[in-house]
Every structure is written in C-alpha cells, then in structure tokens.
Amino acid sequence: MTTITLEVNPEIAAAYQAVSSAEREQITKIVTLLLQNPKESDLAFLRRIMDDISDKAEANGLTPEILESILNDP
Question: Which of 31, 39, 52, 57 is 20 to 30 A distant from 22 in Cα terms?
Fold first, then answer.
C-alpha cells in the first residue's frame, strides 16, 4: 500500500481521526473501490459497498433473522 493525502474539511478530518482502525480499513476499501474503476456504474459500486457492509455485520454477529426481527419491531 502507498499512503496518499486527501484534502477534506475539518469536520471530516475530525470524524476520521475518531474512528477505529477497523473503520479506517473500511474507508480505505471504499476509496479504493471508488478510484479503482472510475467508469463502473453507480449501481455496481453501491452493490459492492452493501456487500462489504453485510460481511461486516455478519462478522459482528448480525444474522438475517436478527435483522428481520429488528426491521419488524415497531
């Protein structure tokens, strides 16, 4: 990996500094996906991001049954 510098507003910088290393890894993955295939359709990009979020949720113990229960809870 190579380190790069991005210009962001102070709020984004503060938010980035406050997240865990695991969340920073996720941000790195998102930026990589964004820049890796700039011609990729927005829908395909969104699907890849959603898959990554789903994998993270499953790794943290969220099952489809638990998610359904949460979504159906009034």
Answer: 39
- CA dist 7 and 5 (Å) reads 7
Amino acid at 51: D
As a whole number of angstroms, the distance between CA 36 and CA 55 comes to 20
Q: Tokens at residue 41, please?
A: 């359709």
Q: Write out pLDDT tens, residues 9-56.
A: 888 888 999 999 999 998 888 888 777 766 667 778 778 888 888 888
**Matching residue, tokens 């507003």:** 9
**Exposure class string for 15-52: b at 16+ Cβ within 10 A, else e:** eeeeeeeeeeeeeeeeeeeeeeeeeeeeeebeebeeee
